[in-house]
Design goal:
- The chain is of the alpha+beta class.
- The chain has one domain (about 1-150): Aminopeptidase, CATH 3.40.630.
- It is about 30% helix and about 35% strand.
- It has 4 helices and 7 strands.
- The protein has helices spanning about 10-20, 30-35, 85-100, 115-120; strands spanning about 1-5, 40-50, 55-65, 70-75, 105-110, 125-135, 145-150.
- It has a 7-stranded mixed sheet, with helices on both faces.
- A hairpin with an 8-residue loop joins strand 6 (about 125-135) and strand 7 (about 145-150).
- The radius of gyration is 15 Å and the shape is globular.
- The protein starts with a strand and ends with a strand.
- Bound molecules: coenzyme A.
- Coenzyme A binds near residues 83, 84, 86, 109 and 119.
- Acetylates the N-terminal alanine of ribosomal protein bS18.
- It comes from Ornithinimicrobium humiphilum.
- It is found in: Cytoplasm.
- This is [Ribosomal protein bS18]-alanine N-acetyltransferase.
- It is an enzyme of class 2 (transferase).
C-alpha cells in the first residue's frame, strides 16, 4: 500500500470510494473539488493498492485553517479495513497538523459509528461536545447524535 498526497486525478476515484463508504450523505466529486481548491489550508492523502491501476484503497483530509486542525474525512475501502490503514492515514493527519502548528485536532463522528470511534479512541481523542440528533439516517430510522472529539497535540 502506498500513501501519497492526493491530486486532481484522484478526485473521481475518491468520490467513488466515498459513495461506497458513506451510504448516507456522501460527498460529491464537486465537494471534493472545492476542498482541494482550498489548499494549502487543506491537506488530502490517498492510499493506493499495489495493483496495476493503483486503485484508491483509502483517503483522509485535514483542514489546518484554525488553531485546532480538523479531520474533514477519513475512509478505507471495505476490503482493506482492519489492516491498520485507517490508523496510518490518521497518524499522517496528526503529523500534518503538528507541522502546521496546530494545538490539537478536532473531528466529528456519528455516535453509532463503532469502527471510527474505536480508531479515534486508540489515538487519544476525547469527547468535547454532543450534537443531539445531528445526523440523518437511512429512511425511517431516527437521527443520530454527532460526537465532537478532540485530541491534544504534544509539541
Ligand atoms: C473507520 C475506518 C476508517 C477504520 O479504518 P481501518 O483501516 O479499518 O482501521 P484500522 O485497521 O487502522 O484499525 C485501527 C483501530 O481502529 C479500531 N477499529 C477498527 N475497526 C473496528 C471495528 N470494526 N470495531 C471497533 N473498533 C475498530 C481498533 O481499535 C483498531 O485497532 P486494532 O486493530 O489494534 O484493534 C473504516 O472503518 C472506514 O472507512 N469506515 C467507513 C467510513 C467512516 O466511517 N469514516 C469515519 C467517519 S468519522
Amino acid at each position: 500500500m502506498r500513501v501519497r498526497e492526493a491530486g486532481w486525478r484522484d478526485l473521481a476515484g475518491m468520490a467513488r470510494l466515498e459513495a461506497e463508504c458513506f451510504p448516507v450523505d456522501a460527498w460529491s466529486e464537486g465537494l471534493f473539488w472545492s476542498e482541494f481548491a482550498q489548499r494549502p489550508q487543506r491537506a488530502y492523502w490517498v492510499a493506493t493498492a499495489d495493483d496495476a491501476d493503483g486503485t484508491i484503497a483509502g483517503y483522509a483530509g485535514l483542514s489546518t485553517a484554525g488553531e485546532d486542525a480538523e479531520v474533514m474525512t477519513i475512509a478505507v475501502g471495505p476490503e482493506h479495513r482492519g489492516t491498520g490503514l485507517g490508523a496510518r492515514l490518521l497518524d499522517l493527519l496528526h503529523e500534518t497538523a503538528a507541522a502546521a502548528g496546530a494545538s490539537g485536532v478536532l473531528l466529528e463522528v456519528r455516535a453509532d459509528n463503532e469502527p471510527a470511534r474505536g480508531l479515534y479512541a486508540t489515538r487519544g481523542y476525547q469527547l468535547v461536545h454532543t450534537r443531539r440528533g445531528y445526523y440523518r439516517s437511512a429512511q425511517g430510522a431516527p437521527a443520530v447524535d454527532a460526537l465532537v472529539l478532540r485530541k491534544e497535540l504534544t509539541r
